[in-house]
Amino acid sequence: MKTGIKVFFVLFYAASFANITLPAVFCDNMVLQQKTNVNIWGTASPGEEISVTVSWTKNSFSTKASASGEWKLLLKTTKGGNQEHTITVKGYNTIVIHKILLGEVWFSSGQSNMEWVMRRVKDAEKELKEAEYPAIRLFNVVKGKSETPQDEFPQGSKWLPCTPENVKEFSAISYYFARELHVKLGVPIGIISASWGGTGAECWTPEEKMKNHPVLKNIYDRWIDWDLNRKKDSIAFVEVKKANPKAEDPKSVYMTNRPHRRPSVLYNAMVAPLLPYTFKGVVWYQGTSNVDWAEEYFDQMKALIDGWRSNFNNGTFPFYFMQISSFKYNNSNKAALLRENQLKTLSLPKTAMCATMDIGELNNIHPTYKLPYGLRLANIALANSYKKDIDFCGPLYKKYTIKNDSIEISFEHGEAIYFKGETLNDIFIAGEDRKFVKAQAYIKNNKLVVFSPTVKSPVSVRYAWNNTDKANLFNDSNLPASPFRTDNWENIIVQ
């Protein structure tokens, strides 16, 4: 055969067969969920035979790429441990993934407090020095946005072992969560973190769950208005700024300058590429950017949770979260309403929550002490997913009874409730006039009895419905009560 023909044949042969490829989440140092069937997938030439062998079992797995070149397999995993494994994927080419651990895999997401990195936490130098955990693996999703769901993460997203250097730019809450699970369960932990500060839950929600939703379609109406009014509002604001240099941008300008806040764009770029990776569950901390539209938040979270569960095709996986912390919001009623809708999210299956009113800072929306946040999320998981005997939640309002001149409140998770201090702070009571006044309270038969000498015929109680960091109702596990109200009155500010 002539040399020119040989070269042509080799080039033609190479061009005829595409190499097998794997998503970025399948790489060295990864963690696979133990004792289950996990998905592995990728691309190849149409019809290409693909075989997969793994080092934890003698079984091999095989499939054939579809007409569009896509393939997917289920791999059965065994009990986790510190032994590192390999996966070998063969087709026209061969890929070997090294240093794989089997253990527990969790996905963490949210906005700025979830994004807050370890180098910025309280006692960062000490915490980083101690962050040497070879059996904890970190996958930090690089920030990105997209108008359509993507198959691959932004470049640079990869698994890394937990070392002081690697954890420095990793989510602090996610690290503390993973560390506590690792210590308490004694198995490797993989934590995949995808967060972006200042983002609403709608950014992380699949479009198909919002576009035609009777409530959430408001999101798209707002963006249409902001896009239409941006130029006009921007020009008018020039004069406002002259008179008041500290004036805030009009909403239309503020939002349109932040394209990462558009609906679904972060789901498309930072969540969809993970489909259908197999993990144990999700931990979530977000809500501040939805305070202005607090009345929509339950519908929003239901859409997000249902959308993720449906698209991952991973059953009703656990979804655990925390209420937003104390902070001096411009509208305290809206913030309290958002916390109430977070509480309502517990009506969805396999969800759990812990309040955080005691660990926030009234004048700082980004408290640097992230350890208690991570521990509370870990305790939720340990109690609910791993059936450990751990109390994970403070008192949650259950029901009320009016008794003459007082109102009696019952709680779930209200075992041995008590006040941190001599009296209960931030408790308010109102009569038919709907004017709330500061109330007094005492505990009787593990119920909260609320009254005021100035309200002879009370009809409603509200607790921590104001901007406060002094709320002090706890249970015997030293966990704070969630803010609550016994009425459904609208637009009432409690001072």
Question: Please, could you describe this protein's structure?
Answer:
- The protein has 495 residues and is an alpha/beta fold.
- The chain has helices at residues 3-16, 112-115, 124-129, 164-167, 172-185, 217-243, 251-256, 265-271, 297-312, 332-344, 371-384; strands spanning 31-33, 37-43, 49-54, 60-64, 70-76, 81-90, 94-110, 133-140, 159-162, 189-195, 281-285, 319-322, 351-354, 396-403, 406-412, 418-419, 427-430, 437-438, 440-444, 447-451, 460-463, 473-474, 484-485.
- It has three domains: 104-209 and 263-393, Rossmann fold; 211-261, no CATH class; 396-485, no CATH class.
- Strands 1, 3, 4, 6, 7, 8, 9, 10, 11, 12 and 13 form an eleven-stranded mixed sheet that branches.
- Helix 10 (332-344) links the parallel strand 12 (319-322) and strand 13 (351-354).
- Helix 5 (172-185) crosses helix 11.
- 44% of the residues are buried.
- Mean pLDDT is 95; it is low at 5-15.
Class from secondary-structure proportions: alpha/beta
At CATH level 2, the architecture of the largest domain is 3-Layer(aba) Sandwich
CATH topology of the largest domain: Rossmann fold
Low-pLDDT ranges: 5-15
Q: Which descriptors would you attach to this protein?
A:
495 residues, alpha/beta, Rossmann fold, 3 domains, eleven-stranded mixed sheet, four-stranded antiparallel sheet, 11 helices, 23 strands, globular
Q: Would you spell out the secondary-structure blueprint of this structure?
A:
Blueprint: H1 3-16, E1 31-33, E2 37-43, E3 49-54, E4 60-64, E5 70-76, E6 81-90, E7 94-110, H2 112-115, H3 124-129, E8 133-140, E9 159-162, H4 164-167, H5 172-185, E10 189-195, H6 217-243, H7 251-256, H8 265-271, E11 281-285, H9 297-312, E12 319-322, H10 332-344, E13 351-354, H11 371-384, E14 396-403, E15 406-412, E16 418-419, E17 427-430, E18 437-438, E19 440-444, E20 447-451, E21 460-463, E22 473-474, E23 484-485
Parallel strand pairs: 1-7, 7-10, 7-11, 8-10, 11-12, 12-13
Antiparallel strand pairs: 2-5, 3-4, 3-6, 6-7, 8-9, 14-15, 15-20, 16-22, 17-18, 17-21, 19-20, 21-23
